[in-house]
Write a structure and sequence with these properties.
Elements (H helix, E strand, L loop, with lengths): L11 H15 L4 H9 L4 H13 L5 H14 L2 H16 L7 H6 L1 H17 L3 H15 L2 E2 L4 E2 L4 E3 L5 E2 L4 E2 L4 E3 L3 E3 L11 E2 L4 E2 L4 E3 L3 E2 L4 E2 L4 E2 L7 E4 L4 E5 L5 H4 L12
Parallel strand pairs: 1-4, 2-5, 3-6, 4-7, 5-8, 6-9, 7-10, 8-11, 9-12, 10-13, 12-14
Antiparallel strand pairs: 14-15
Helix pairs in contact: 1-2, 2-3, 3-4, 5-7, 7-8
Length: 269
């Protein structure tokens, strides 16, 4: 068996197919779903469209939704590529993810993020009603609310994900880790560019609130429960309400290391 650390963009899809086949043989109750979603799929993107169509359909026909998602993937090849990088990021950072099949099928942070990627493509194409439909369904099903106009990079992990809110003008860089109950929001009913800009390799702890059109620099750490109202410099750790600098981030890639301990002798108010 290929270990998670050995997977790459080239080996992820064959590994996912092999694991789906083995799981279908081992657990017959899941065989029909695995066959329809993965084993009959032509490639990773096709499997992703099948997965999301089954889950999100609701008040629209699943076949029609599958065709729409397939159009999104055909229009933007980066959706599939980013979705694969998101799985690799999850395998790197989450000890509960021991193989690619589990996050692909069962992790709602992953599924909500891929729903956003489809909605973002539709939003950019001017199909805003359909984009908002996908946003609404993701919010209902996964308790994650990401506006389709937000801009999110690749290699992103939404860990546990319940309660995550990302506003319309928010920007999230590459290789970011966001834990549950995080808000990237505004500070009131202002209009225009009003949401945070998160750099790459940032780790945002559970329950943190980052509010307003402020910048969080590359490689920063936001401690759990913090309320961030002012810009955060790159490679620094902030904590508290309101958040203040309590030390350096401790490494270049906090999002990958996932170390949430604060510096020694740090007093957080």
């Amino acid at each position: 068996m290929i270990k998670p650390a050995d997977l790459s963009l080239d080996t992820l899809w064959p590994s996912l197919q092999r694991e789906a086949d083995a799981t279908a043989r081992r657990e017959p109750l899941l065989a029909v779903m695995l066959d329809e979603v993965i084993l009959k799929a032509s490639d990773f993107g096709d499997a992703l469209a099948r997965l999301l169509a089954r889950k999100l359909a609701g008040d629209v026909p699943a076949n029609s939704l599958y065709n729409l998602l397939a159009e999104c993937l055909a229009a933007d090849a980066e959706i599939s590529r980013s979705a694969q990088k998101d799985i690799l990021a999850t395998l790197e950072r989450d000890p509960a993810a021991t193989s690619p099949l589990a996050p692909f099928l069962f992790f709602k942070g992953y599924r909500s993020l891929q729903t956003y990627r489809m909605a973002h493509q539709l939003w950019g194409a001017g199909r805003c009603d359909l984009a908002l439909f996908l946003q609404s369904r993701a919010s209902e099903l996964f308790s994650v609310d990401i506006h389709p106009a937000a801009r999110i990079g690749h290699g992103v992990m939404l860990d546990h994900a319940t309660g995550i809110v990302i506003g319309e003008t928010a920007v999230v860089g590459n290789d970011v880790s966001i834990l549950h109950n995080v808000t990237l929001g505004g500070t009131g009913n202002e209009t225009g560019d009003r949401h945070p800009k998160i750099g790459s390799d940032v780790m945002i702890g559970a329950g943190a609130k980052i509010l307003g059109n402020i910048t969080v620099g590359d490689g920063a750490r936001i401690a759990a429960g913090s309320v961030v109202l002012h810009p955060v410099e790159a490679h620094m750790t902030v904590a508290g309400i309101p958040a203040r600098v309590v030390g350096k981030a401790g490494c270049d890639r906090p999002a990958a290391v996932m170390d949430q301990t604060l510096p020694k002798n740090c007093i957080v108010k």
